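Morning!

This is the sequence you dropped in the shared folder:
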Amino acid sequence: MTSEIIEQPKEIEVVKEEKWTNVQIDSQILNTYMACPKLMDFRFNRKLIPVSGLSRSISKGQLSHIGAHNYWKSIIEGKDYQESSRIGIEATKNQIKEFSNIEPDDALDVLKNLVDFFKFIQNSSWIPLFVEKHFKIVLFEDPIIKLRIIYTGRIDLGLKTPQIPLIPVDMKSESERWFYSTMSNQFKGYSIACGTNVFGVQRFGFQKTLEPKDKFKMEMLSFDPDVLEEWRTITVPYHVKQMLINNEDNQWPMNTSNCIHGHFKCLFSDAYNNGICSVSREVREQKLSRYFTIGEDWDPEKV
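The structure's back. Tokens below.
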């Protein structure tokens, strides 16, 4: 595999070159497709977003990312803890006005949580290497059918320790305690892109009853190398081949096992607006026009 830093692609790209089919796909698009092809079609092909805008929880998460990103960027630039913390807070304050649907209490909650987070990691032994780094790798090649899968994404943070030269890290804001698994497609892909089998999940919790050590815990995940290889050479190629078929036929079937499980409820399930995917196709299009609008091209820098 080869890798390089690039500008993030906006959507799936399929190019036929010298009898090869090159499929360039973003990590979020692939992950959504593997969960439900219909959801991927709605979100990335048709670019549908709720007319009500982002949810409060997503807005809080995005604001938190802005603060943490600017903090770590300042640390990498050689600024001290106090200055980096101030920069992180100020950057967040400056962006609040861009989130029209966020409540004042939510904004204050984010700012307070960032202050607590910065205090908690002040004496951390982690050494930051990069923040929000885009990658592009040739994930898989099949010379028999001339298929090349080019996988792209953006990693929130790269750290190192005296023992481990690189740990890719994803920051996860949460209002309740989540379980993070090595079964995650995103975590596998990012680990492969960095050439490591160790991955970090930085919790950024909003739970008021938890101690900082629990709210802001760095969760370390370790992958079996063969599991990563299986994902790279079998799992991903299978789904990409299926995606090519769906794209050719313009048929995006539902995976109804993904509609509602645990606390997760898909926006197109019958948990919202009395259902989108659960009604007839004619009525579905009417409801899509009523409750959703066409957003911008997918840009992970806004996530």
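Headline: The longest strand covers residues 127-142.

More detail when I'm at my desk.
O.
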